[in-house]
Amino acid sequence: MRRILLIGILCFTVQSYGQKILAWQVLTLTQYSIISEGSDEGLYKPKFPDILLKYENQEVSISGYIIPMDIDNNTYALSMTPFSSCFFCGNAGPNTALELSFKEKQNKFLVDQFVIIKGKLILNRYNPHQLFFKITNAEIEG
Fold first, then answer.
1. 35, 36, 53: which is closest to 44 by C-alpha?
2. pLDDT tens-digit readout, 22-32
3. Could you say which DSSP state residue 55 is in?
4. Looking at residue 85, which CATH number applies to its domain?
5. Which of 24, 67, 93, 98: disulfide with 80, CB 3.0–4.6 Å?
6. How many domains in the chain?
């Protein structure tokens, strides 16, 4: 019951400038299954919870650990956990990382640098070759 209450409070927390704070606990409510047929076999298909749909296409703020993916193409991921524990090489699931598409080219980040990001949340329903979540027009907050 406490977890549900905490998630509810976090979901309705809005900073004074209208931006929603997105907690990883809300993202991790996303369930997923393994695709068992066709060219996407072995990849994941998400099922987003209703509570997360309230954040879709909204400007959100979320904190996490930077994981450089392709620095030359300004592609990064944000993880709920440090790299050694994240979805890519640890024990976490695909609902614990999101893709970042920055508004401007970024200086090189350190792996596992803790940051607060703001930007527009996009939910990926259709491309199993990409992460479930993406923040577009991302900026470092603070």
1. 35
2. 999 999 999 99
3. T
4. 2.40.50.870
5. 24
6. 1
